[in-house]
Write a structure and sequence with these properties.
- This protein is of the alpha/beta class.
- The chain has 2 domains: 207 residues, NAD(P)-binding Rossmann-like Domain (Rossmann fold), CATH 3.40.50; 145 residues, Rossmann fold (3-Layer(aba) Sandwich), CATH 3.40.50.
- It has 22 helices and 14 strands.
- The strands form 2 sheets. An 8-stranded mixed beta sheet has the order 3-2-1-4-5-6-7-8, sandwiched between helices.
- Strand 9, helix 15 and strand 10 form a beta-alpha-beta unit.
- Helix 2 crosses helix 4, helix 6 runs parallel beside helix 7 and helix 11 crosses helix 13.
- It binds nicotinamide-adenine-dinucleotide and uridine-5'-diphosphate-glucose.
- The site of nicotinamide-adenine-dinucleotide has 26 residues, from helix 2 and helix 6.
- Its EC number is 1.1.1.22.
- InterPro entries: 6-PGluconate_DH-like_C_sf, NAD(P)-bd_dom_sf, UDP-Glc/GDP-Man, UDP-Glc/GDP-Man_DH_C, UDP-Glc/GDP-Man_DH_C_sf, UDP-Glc/GDP-Man_DH_dimer, UDP-Glc/GDP-Man_DH_N, UDPglc_DH_bac.
- It comes from Zhihengliuella alba.
Amino acid sequence: MSGDTSRIEAAAPQPRITVIGTGYLGATHAACMAELGFEVLGLDVDPLKIVALSRGELPFHEPGLPELLVKHVSSGRLRFTNSYREAADFGDVHFIGVGTPQRPGESAADLAYVDAAVAELVRNLTRDALIVGKSTVPVGTARRLRRLIDDELEGRPEPAAPRVALAWNPEFLREGRAVQDTLAPDRLVVGTDDGDAESRALLRRVYAAPLATGTPLIETDFETAELVKVAANAFLATKISFINAFSEITEVIGGDITTLADALGHDARIGRKFLNAGVGFGGGCLPKDIRALQARADELGAGAAMRFLTQMDEINLRRRDRVIHLATQSVGLLQGARIAVLGAAFKPESDDVRDSPALDIAARLYNSGADVTVYDPQANRNAAARFPRLEYARSLEEAVSGADLVVLLTEWEEFRRLRPRDLEPLVRERRFIDGRNVLPAEDWKASGWEFSALGRRADVVGLHEVREQVSGADPRSRLAPIDFFQSLAAE
Ligand SMILES: NC(=O)c1ccc[n+]([C@@H]2O[C@H](COP(=O)([O-])OP(=O)(O)OC[C@H]3O[C@@H](n4cnc5c(N)ncnc54)[C@H](O)[C@@H]3O)[C@@H](O)[C@H]2O)c1
Ligand SMILES: O=c1ccn([C@@H]2O[C@H](COP(=O)(O)OP(=O)(O)O[C@H]3O[C@H](CO)[C@@H](O)[C@H](O)[C@H]3O)[C@@H](O)[C@H]2O)c(=O)[nH]1
């Protein structure tokens, strides 16, 4: 892709670009725009982020991005600021990539950051500009922002009033593959009002490089563009929950969930991707986006159509309960058990712990009295900021030392390569739960491990054996075993 940039550089003058909000999405977008040959200014309200980025230091983990950041900060093509005035004076095209998190205690998205960013930008604009929304928003947001922009401009003296256009260009990048997904996306979607030809033409110039290599471009209205984004995430979440729903069946009756997924995936109409059964989806996108979609559909009086998403969410969250249940069955009593949790990020190749199944499970095990040590190759710092009371190990070996149970919850390559003999000299008990279905169960069982995985019938000590273990010499037997058996019976 970078091979195409010389042609773009030659075609001066290029529009100057600002990216407002320099988190996972915005920092990636800004660096990739610079890679495509544009002069770029990134803006964020977080002063620490701006200081770090201006020094060429990426404040999060994303493969390939540090190199691009250093390259373009050094060349001067990529700069960062916290001044809206500077951004408004600089840019022809302003991408909005601020957060749209779930509102605390509600399902709906919090649009306060998007509204504030657009309002602040427009307030400072004295020249014509195209504002391009990239944040994931509920359908109807762009049309509402159009009115907000018009209201903001109303009353300005005529010669000074700039012309401000708006387009919606949702982002589909995945964390861990953000650079590739931005430079060579599967598709580009651009929503405009009334077929706004000028904005479309400008964005075709911005995206000339990916378009030249055949990236499909879908030019449509605001509503369709907004909906493509949330529909894509809803579909992906549904695929994951679909296979995980079958896990609940195979866990009872037997069967192999991975073989089932492989067999389904051979049907080209279904496809194998996103059918990996395990502890399910987390992160800063899929969970909040399906909840926000359900909430928006409810507001629009179309809630019944999206009700299945609530079920997808429930299936997803039940996977976390299943791990707690397996862990309890395995160690007999969580109170005092030493549990090593491998993984804290919501997925490998990311340090993002937003709504991470791994970290949620680790915290729940801890809250049930287990002595939990977490190890993640990249996310320990973010995890510790969220749950400072958990223990964090600097290595896999340190995490599993003396463990009564090892639980794999994020499938980093380092964990996928694990073999029984790597852990045997370190653990206290040979017990393993594979929460991502990435290890060969038979090898572990053959080495004498009690090994269970999601989507497979539990192969852990049964209730009878648990009873014996707890009433035996184990000091944990003093911790209310009666309550424990009653709670098991109640399940
Ligand atoms: N992370 C992804 O993989 C991804 C992919 C596609 C879409 N999205 C969407 O992109 C948006 C951003 O997600 P993210 O993961 O990058 O979030 P993030 O929290 O990493 O980054 C958001 C940034 O916006 C900044 N910000 C907040 N208010 C601001 C304001 N008024 N002006 C300037 N900066 C402001 C924050 O300080 C933060 O740095 C969300 O809508 C998300 O759903 C994210
Ligand atoms: O078969 C699978 C695939 C994924 N996951 C989990 O699903 C979550 C999301 O994974 P992924 O979609 O790869 O990560 P994100 O970076 O959150 O990307 C999603 O969310 C982004 C933000 O909206 C979109 O831009 C992307 O297209 C969309 O894939 C993670 O917890 C994964 O562990 C599974 O459990 N099983």
